[in-house]
Amino acid sequence: KEIFLKDYKQPDYFFDTVDLKFTLSEEKTIVFSKIVVYPRLEGCSAPLVLDGIDLKLISLKVNGDELKVDDFHHDARHLTLSAPPSGKFTLETVTEISPQTNTSLEGLYKSSGNFCTQCEAQGFRKITFFQDRPDIMAKYTCRIEADKSLYPVLLSNGNLIEQGEIEGGKHFAVWEDPFVKPCYLFALVAGKLESRDDTFITRSGRKVLLRIWTPVEDLPKTAHAMYSLKAAMKWDEDVFGLEYDLDLFNIVAVSDFNMGAMENKSLNIFNSEVVLASPETATDADYATILGVIGHEYFHNWTGNRVTCRDWFQLSLKEGLTVFRDQEFSSDMGSRTVKRIADVTGVRTYQFPEDMGPMAHPVRPHSYIKMDNFYTGKCRISPSCIGHDIGAEVVRMYKTLLGAPGFRKGMDLYFKRHDGQAVTCEDFYSAMRDANDADFFNFLLWYSQAGTPCLKVVTAYDAQAKSYSLKFSQVVPPTPGQPVKEPMFIPVAVGLVGPNGKDIPLSSVYHDGKLETITKDGQPVNTTVLRVTKKEEEFVFSDIRECPVPSILRGYSAPIRLDSDLTDADLYFLLANDSDEFNRWEAGQVLARKLMLSLVSDFQKNEKLVLNPQFLLGVKSILCDSSLDKEFVAKAITLPGEGEIMDIMEIADPDAVHAVRTFIRKQLATELRDEFLNTVKNNRSSEQYEFNHTNMARRALKNIALAYLGSLEDEEITELALHEYKTATNMTDQFASLAALDQNPGKTRDEVLADFYDKWQHDFLVVNKWLSLQASSNIPGNIENVRKLLNHPAFDIRNPNKVYSLIGGFCGSRVNLHAKDGSGYKFMGEMVLQLDKLNPQVASSMVTVFSRWKRYDETRQNLAKAQLEMIMAENGLSENVFEIVSKSLAVS
Ligand code: ARG
Ligand code: ZN
Fold it and tell me: What is the C-alpha to C-alpha distance for residues 490 and 506, in angstroms, rounded to an integer?
């Protein structure tokens, strides 16, 4: 059933208090719920409709009396009280559920013998009968009873107010959460866990106990998570003045979890992949992800929990804002430019493709069949990112327009107005606007209009008039259900770089018949933010004495595709000189995209591929420029991904794009062999592993050099990579050398892969890396190996991380996924059907590989369509998969 934003209605009944009691046992769990209900309007006589799925109703009482069969209606999804009392009343239900057979991992389920919950978005209805919607905010207590030896630790939200023993070897704990919350933030954990404890003293002097819970053997791997949590708590105080509001903060790591983590009030539950780390087992990327996700979930305490969403269409209100906050946190803890590059790459790799497919939707969708499908972005294929990149970009634009102090003012007003409420994206917008008395024109379109805007720029220098003009024209492409679009308000940060490589100071711009002053505190600026709002418009800078090269969209000031008339010479100039480091990187990317596209067309015409010598020189000068940040260099010499190139082609051609990318990599490795070898040698270190930018940057540069070299099939390089593999003292270096060796099939590759498994088979997170590396290999016919791995003892289709590693990993190889014999599609079709019976959320994240089937040639289209039709014909398909498959087949 499709749900529409325009149909939102306030609930007829609110819940005041919710008292829950769980008796957990091996066969079944009984949930007692006592809710104080009151009507929104006095004297209301509307029926009370409760959600409930897979629940066995044992008892139902109103004001203490068991209801008669005629007074309620129960079906597969709802429990309806036809005539509840007018005025306040208590509703008591007793339900039976079966966590041990719950493979969907939503609601209450078991992971490695422990009980845990996941309620967002709509999992609470699998626990007990409830109005499962975020605008129902209530105060909760939760009593848990369970066997004491099997489940020594019993956790829920808020404060522990009572605990003790009960007969039969059981014990209990009672938790009370003093804050009102929607049910999606409810959590319960029961199991054999130990904690790493620490404390944090808030700036107003509250002493908070911090506890990270894991099975005992994993405790040593929680040090980095604890460091991250304390850093996040401090950062939120420093940057936003936001303090933690309880005396206890719990984090629990579980190994079976659909996504990354969950911000349940004071009891965050995490996929262990984004908590556990040690230098020997986790890479730099893992460390950085953990920092970001721990921050993210912690930041939700204010943006999400204290102020929550009115309905699920407002998801971006909390996710966009919280992703933005975690991005800023990570930037402040590491390198801002490098973080920005990583985030923009995420937008291009995961968000833009979605905008081009049948699931394209605005930041605030107009409708959904299954809300879980709108937790988009990278999180759909790996738990390491939360997604909502575009929502975060929208929040970032407020900051770009208002400046940091103005943005802070807006945040302060937002909390002042809405603490304890369930609100909408407009409420956030209004707070930002009102706090700054700002004119945001039609900025709200960013929430309602889908599709990636394309902004064209034509530049001109008038040497006579000493003026420089930028002419913009924008197009927002049609998306399903939105054929015609309005022009958007696009903030474009611009600087003009003079022939000496320095920014030209700007003090005014002529626009719309007016001369606007753009100074700051009376001083000219190097960068100004142009407000592009029309289909076509021009901005003219005057008093520009020499012809500049424009640096447009500095810092990626809006989530759009930019199409400028800059020449290759201009781009090489920016690559070498732009004071905006993001745009320096971007200039290199634009050059690489152009180069790749032109080689793709050569390849398709069967012409010999030749690498442009100027490009080679550009890469060489970046690689050898010791004044640059090493991680920046690593990013700058990384070619755009194959998916990114396919997205800008009329008809996506995975074979051509792969051949071209491989060709350029090999050419660069051949021509710059000595430089790459030196880079590897000069950036080794035998020091102890440290998580800091300098060390990570050094490793990043060394390992990208090794990756380039690994593309050469050559004995000296194999020896080098083997040496790196054997001498590595941390997983970052060890895995990078393994990956370098993985590129070429043969005996060495087989041996080293076997050795790695041997070494790490006891550590499931490392084994997942091993699965994913092999699965994503571009070696022709790798599908056979992937099928074999399905039967490997290390694989288990019920565990999402393993599915994301092996099956998701396979999708990482564009050539093998889109193999022209249809073998990749057939495999994915089979997997989706198997997964859907176990875990619809995981199945639907896998089925998205088919959603853009129309982007390929006819042969591939027919093969993919056949799989979609095969899936569609299946009986008992989940709503999750149904939504994506039906929308994919509907595109004409
Ligand atoms: N709110 C979570 C986070 O920010 C996302 C988890 C959503 N899970 C789901 N099954 N829909 O990390
Ligand atoms: Zn989130």
Answer: 20
